[in-house]
Amino acid sequence: MIAIISLICGTAYAQQDTGYHWYTPAWIEGQGFPVAGKYDRLPARAEKTVPPKVWSLSRMSAGLSLRFRTSAPDIMVRYVVSGKQEMPHMPATGASGVDLYSIDPNGEWKWSAGKYSFGDTITYRFSGMSKDVGEYRLYLPLYNTVQWLEIGTKADSIHFLPLRLEQPIVIYGTSIAQGACASRPGLAWANQLERIMDRPLVNLGFAGNGKLDPPVTELLTDIDAKVYVLDCLPNISGLPAAEITEKVLTAVKQIRKMKPATPILLVEHARISGNAAQEAAYEQLLLHGEKQLYLLPAAQLGLDLESTVDGTHPNDIGMQQYAKGYAQVLRQIFNEPVGNINTTIPCRQYRELVRYDWDLRHYTQLRMNKKEAPKVAIIGNSITHFWGGQPAGPIARGTDSWPAGARNMGFGWDRIENVLWRVYHDELDGFEAKKILIMIGTNNLQMNNDAEIIAGLQQLVLAIKARQAKADILLAGILPRVDMAERVAKINKSILQLAGSTQVQFINPGQVLLKADQTPDSTLYTDGLHPNNTGYSKLATYLQPYLK
């Protein structure tokens, strides 16, 4: 009777799809390889090397997602899957459903409730959507194979966002990693972790078949990962302890042969007897000098009597506990601490999307760093962004005075927490700069007190020092503002003290924009905040000896 009622309710939610314009996804997030099927997780060549069950499970779309942008008020998703839509311990919405999240202009995550209908073709409709969305992220089914999928809107087109370029988190695991038994895809712990870290993630969880098989482990090294996670104990715990230890040793050594410096994280399980055997392998590897090897203890996952569906597979509560436990250890491995106030919590932003694409500029920085690493980088907001240099911005008010050879790492409307996100997401990785100039904080003045701004700047400076240990770091005072002259002068004294405590050099270029009475010279600004061409020339003259 319950199943009949559920079917009737689901049918009641069915929506007519007439009048929609339909779009096929251009890119699929979460795939670590070129694949044969559009929604596969392993490359076609793997069919000949991995166990048949692993290959079959790799056709399921766990961890895959679509990123897109639209201003349409209504969004509809329709698709067909090939397998059973539900399992005894997992509802259809989790096994075969989709899940829509979005990021608002200030970088905050939102979830959208969709009206769904499960039939031969599954449909989800999302209504009343905001026009001010920087990104939509649609998570695909956890335990089914997608045959085809389309996204439709009535009034506006859909712009599919290209694949992210940051190094991904790569997870090799079991049914728990694949997503059993989340009630919807976005609640699977790996998908929660992907949002918490806001970093690409490749989910190679295979139900009942995460067994540290060498052919699968070998495939991991094809991916340039930020970290390799081995979370396979639930599927090998029935083996003798010595065999478990040997499997872990072999897997780590196999990865190390191809990736000698990439972090590897071994994960315990709360209800598995194999923890001691894996820990023995961990201790043995450390004893032999293994570096960048980490262990996530079962206790840190925080599972309790409310955490599972059946004593093994997490429910939504357990999934959240898993994600938080993982995030805690990964932030330590990546050196990405997060505080309790907004200036210390990294996030993206889309406050000026009408003028430039924040994500695109970030990925342009990453590409340019690989092609030609900068010796001098100037990090800032629109004051830097709209000055000059490369990559070029939509406005250039002082091209002739831009410091020669310096990389423009200014992003319009950035606050401290947005720069922190960029530093945490690889903009200063993989090269050694000579000079790094930090010019950020003015956009925090209207929403944060001085102590919060200083806390954010401190975390930012420490993050930059950790990634650019050999660079001379210059911390600039906030430039004078016509509307906040006294406050800027006051907080700059605190920034001077911060520079001393963090052992970086304080400079105060804004003094060249002041009149003799120490008030801002309005003739040097376009709007009381952004310098004009003359103002930029004065700044360039001041900065020139510091950036040599």
From TrEMBL:
Alphabetized UniProt keyword annotations: Hydrolase
GO molecular function ontology, one term from the record: hydrolase activity, acting on ester bonds
Source domain of life: Bacteria
SUPFAM superfamilies assigned to the protein according to its UniProt record, in alphabetical order: SGNH hydrolase (SSF52266)
InterPro entries: Ester_Hydrolysis_Enzymes, GxDLY, SGNH_hydro, SGNH_hydro_sf
UniProt-listed Pfam families: GxDLY, Lipase_GDSL_2, Lipase_GDSL_3
SGNH hydrolase-type esterase N-terminal domain segment(s): 28-157
Annotated protein name in UniProt: Acetylhydrolase
Species this protein is from: Chitinophaga silvisoli
